[in-house]
Design a protein that fits this description.
Layout (H helix, E strand, L loop, with lengths): L2 E5 L2 E3 L5 E8 L7 E7 L6 E6 L6 E3 L7 E6 L4 E6 L8 E8 L13 E2 L3 E5 L2
Parallel strand pairs: 2-11
Antiparallel strand pairs: 1-3, 3-8, 4-5, 4-9, 5-6, 7-8, 9-10, 9-11
Length: 124
Amino acid sequence: QLQLVESGGGLVQPGGSLRLSCAASGFTLDSYAIGWFRQAPGKERERVSCINNSGGRLNYADSVKGRFTISSDNAKNTVYLQMNSLKPEDTAVYYCAAGPYYYCPTYIYEYDYWGQGTQVTVSS
């Protein structure tokens, strides 16, 4: 079965850092684009970042550019999201999702498989 499992969330102070992991099983990353999404209470789910199957195409939301970095390790079949200079506005449940694309899809419905999410809380 195809599965995505997020980890690495937690409580961090403003200005701190966290690294989220998305471990894939049942498929290999060389055939799938992986997106990171987040959803805060009262807000719509938004795409934070995406990496395509080859790792050559990267996308970031304007709100996280310069602070977050997406990367992949095909040997471990895992995608990471390094989050630096965290702000309270970054507080949300973070999800990873996958779709069989050579590019990074824009819309949520284009992603076929989803993890269950990991909570990130930025607070002093």
